[in-house]
Every structure is written in C-alpha cells, then in structure tokens.
Amino acid sequence: MQFKRSEHLFKEAENVILGGVNSPSRSYKGVGGGSPVFMKKGSGSRFIDEDDNEYIDYLAAYGPIITGHAHPHITKAIQDAAADGVLYGTPTIHENHFAEKLRTAIPSLERVRFVNSGTEAVMTTIRVARGYTGRNKVIKFAGCYHGHSDLVLVAAGSGPATLGSPDSAGVTKNIAAEVITVPFNNLAAFEDAMTQWQDDIACVLVEPIVGNFGIVEPAPGFLEAVNQITHDAGALVVYDEVITAFRFTYGGAQDLLGVKPDLTAMGKIIGGGLPIGAYGGRKDIMESVAPLGPTYQAGTMSGNPASIRSGIACLEVLETPGTYEELDRLGAKLEDGIQQAIEQYQIPAVINRLKGAMTLYFDVTEVTHYDDADRSNGEKFGRFFKMMLQEGINLAPSKFEAWFLTTAHTDDDIDATIAAVHRVFSSGEF
Ligand code: PLP
Prior knowledge:
One of its GO terms (molecular function) is pyridoxal phosphate binding. The protein is α/β, with parallel strands linked by helices and 430 residues long. It contains 14 helices and 17 strands. The protein has two domains: 4-70 and 321-425, Alpha-Beta Complex (Aspartate Aminotransferase, domain 1); 72-318, Type I PLP-dependent aspartate aminotransferase-like (Major domain) (Aspartate Aminotransferase, domain 2). It has an eight-stranded mixed β-sheet, sandwiched between helices. The protein is globular. Bound molecules: pyridoxal-5'-phosphate.
C-alpha cells in the first residue's frame, strides 16, 4: 500500500495547520511518527483515502460514528436540516423532541442542556456542581480524559491520592491545586481523598466505564461505593458519558450498570457525527443554571438544528431492536478471533472488551487501572498499528484508544480483520 498523496498533503498541512492536524490525537506521534492518512470518503464500515486505498474502520471518529459512515437515515436528516436553514438562534421543536428522547433513554436527565462538544459539557457540569455546592475541589480518576478545559488537564501527582499538577502548559498551579486525582478502581485511595478534603469537594468526575486508557470496566461495587461516599460528604457525582452514552446499550453506562449520578455529560454518539455535547441531571441542581439560576452557561451554536436532527436520526437507528446484541456478537467474534491468534503465535497481549468496543494491550497481563495501560508496550502497538494499516485496517493511532464497532460492520469485515491480525502476528515481530 502506498501513501504518497497523504504524505504530500500532510507536508502541505504542516505549512498552514499547526502540526498538520486539528486535534493532536490525529497525528501519528503515539505510533512512532509519520504522516497520518488523509481520508476522503467514508461509507458504512469502510474508508477510502486520498491514494484510493480502502480500509475497514475501527476508529469510528473516536466513537461518534456508531452507525457507520454516511448512514442514509442520518444523511437525510442533515440534508433536511440544511434545506430548512442551519442556525436560527431561537428554540426549535427538534430540541424538545431530542431532550425528551434522551430523558426517556437516560431517566436521570430530569433537565438537559445542549452544548457543542464533550469538553463544553464536562466543563459546565463542574461549574454547575461548584455553583450548587459552594465548594471548589474536584476529584477525578487517573488516566481518564475529560476534554481540554483547564480543570481537567491536570495529571495525578505522585502517591495514591494527591493534588494534581498541570498536564499542559498554560494550566496554572492554582487550578491544578483544585483537582485531586486518584487511581480508578481503587476505593481505598478514593476514601482517603474524600476524608482529607471532604468539605471542599464539589464533585467527583467519573467515566463509569473507562474509554480513555482503553476499555476498562468498574470493579463490582466500585461505582456504588463512590456514590455513597460522595453523597455522604455532601458532594455531587458527575458521570462523563461522552464516550459511553449509547455505546453499550440504548441509554447510558449508568443504565447498563444500574447506578445513578447527579449530573451527566454527553457528546459524540448523540450528535450522529455532527458537533454536539449535552449535560443534564437532577432538576433541582439544573435549575441553578441561567436563566433560572446564578450559574452561567450559553452558546450561539448550542442546540443547532443540524446537530440536533442528526442526533435524533442516530438514536432512531440505534432504537432498532437487536442493535446492541449485534454489536456484542460482532465484538465477541472479533475478540475470539484475535485471542486465538494471540495464543497461536504466543503473543504477550491482552484484550479488554465490552460489547462493541475493545482494546488490545501488549506486554501486560491485565488492565484494570491507568498504570497497567501505561505500562503496556507502546512501541509494539505502534508497529502493530502500522502493519494493520498496510493490511487495510484503520485503528486509532494510540495504545490507549479503543476499537469501535459500528452497526455497519459485517461478518466479512470481522473475518478480514482477524485474517489480517494472523498475518501481522505471524511476522515474528511481536
Ligand atoms: N470526555 C470523554 C470521556 C472523552 O472521551 C472526550 C473526548 O474524547 C471528551 C470528554 C471531550 O469531548 P470533545 O472531544 O467532544 O470535546
């Protein structure tokens, strides 16, 4: 496979777009460098790049494209929205329909607000929690990505429960001092943090199923205990469901797991591929937001008809009976096939999978929290990524990202992917 045109386009991009990419995760820095592939067309489970190479896609745009590329029902909804005018700056009936649809699927969303990205949604839930509780500090879990607002670009310090340190230039030490980062699935560390800072904690920010150091499920009872301890301390539980909402079930991870937060942030899938975010939760808390209350949040593009109608159409596709069972069946088939190859070629690797999402980690035996994922072999993953690309399989260019299945993937796609993994593993390079 040749990537001549992509390489040329990347050089051109580097002269005008910072780093050649509009989000750092799109660069190939995490997989040993090189020019990222420029895609020109997506259809169903497949992509065509600028060199006319074809790929089976497991990136799914980092999660949103759960129905596959250019799903006709979503495409029609976007075309209809465009024909009716893309932005009004007034309320529309579509927002009512969509908010009601979300609340029916995720009952904890007693009141909802639409915003434009997952970052905005999470950022606002933190402001709402701070306004409502009158407290400052936030607890989050190591390795979980919550967007690029200042408060969540804070890394763990050393030790199991520590005040954070800035994870990006431009995030001040004062901001970092308001964030406490503890390991996921480590209840003792969480309890310690709560005991130490409890009257200062506004909220605990949780990805109920982690999607950002691969797919990692909560240990049995972990989320329930986090809820109890947080509420006992008078703080709020905020779920970041930007990846998980409608990923594993028609609803949130909270519905799948039977746990209930006070506030939820969402994005990705609920826009059907167009920019969107949403947050919502308990009515009494949400009523603290303007125009009803003193916590401010606004947006020119928020609730724009194209994103909302695209999101409604996406959920309509996902409502089809059997959708999530089929994603699980294909996910299991993919996992089994790769596991068989792991055993056949004695590759030191482990798979974490939940339904239609999975991650393959090299040189670790188990991944239950961030340190495990961090220890996995990135250099090997980089080689795997590039060899799979040559095989026509498009994965996310990072050892921490998930593979996402879509409703457009077929048994043939899975068979072809497993065959590619066999060829790559039999190379003797792993
Ligand atoms: N929260 C989680 C769990 C995410 O995975 C992401 C993005 O990957 C975000 C928040 C930020 O969302 P966005 O990129 O739409 O701003």
